Amino acid sequence: VVDVVPSADRALALVASPNPMHGDQVSFRLTGSDAGVGAIAATGGAEGLLTLLDANGRELRRLSLTASGLATWDGRDAAGRVLPGGVFMYRWTAGHDSGSGRLVRLR
Fold first, then answer.
1. What number is the average pLDDT over the span 34-46?
2. Using CA atoms, how far apart are residues 32 and 13, in angstroms rounded to an integer?
3. Alpha carbon distance 72, 30 (integer Å)
4. How far apart are CA 99 and CA 107, in angstroms?
5. Exposure on the CB side of residue 89, measured as CA atoms within 13 A
6. How many helices (H) and strands (E) are present in the chain, helices listed first?
7. pLDDT category, 6, cuts 50, 70, 90?
8. Predicted confidence (pLDDT) per residue in 55-76, tens digit
9. Contact status, residue 49 vs residue 98, Cβ threshold 8 Å
10. How far apart are CA 81 and CA 67, in angstroms?
11. Is 76 in a helix, a strand, or coil?
12. How far apart are alpha carbons 105 and 107 in whole angstroms?
């Protein structure tokens, strides 16, 4: 399942893998024309942020994107609780770019 909304002014997207998420970890990676080493610097230099949301839009956790546009989520909320299976949304920003996507977690 690949369900991403790319940035409006660039061909960037944040892709979750594996999706659906089968285990306790999923990786996020910026892809597109400006992605790769220095991806965050290429988008304006500001720190990248990934926000995970439940299906109702409630914020569950925030993660930083590395300078190369990577992040890993362990399936836990901000309080460290393991979350159940279901559909999760995510929003990301990196410099002047932003987007959103959907992640399915199987339990």
1. 52
2. 6
3. 12
4. 26
5. 11
6. 1, 8
7. very low
8. 999 999 999 998 888 999 999 9
9. no
10. 27
11. strand
12. 7
For the record, the structure tokens of 101 come out as 């996507």
Question: What is the C-alpha to C-alpha distance for residues 40 and 93, in angstroms, rounded to an integer?
Answer: 9
> Which tokens sit at 80?
């460290």
Q: Which amino acid is at 29?
A: R
Please say whether the beta carbons of 19 and 5 come within 8 A: no
Residue 107 CA to residue 38 CA, distance in Å, equals: 34
What are the structure tokens assigned to 78, written together?
A: 């901000």
Distance of CA 91 to the CA centre of its chain: 6
Q: Are 14 and 29 in contact (CB under 8 A)?
A: yes
Q: d(Cα 77, Cα 98) in Å, to the nearest integer?
A: 22
Element of type H or E holding 61: strand 59-65
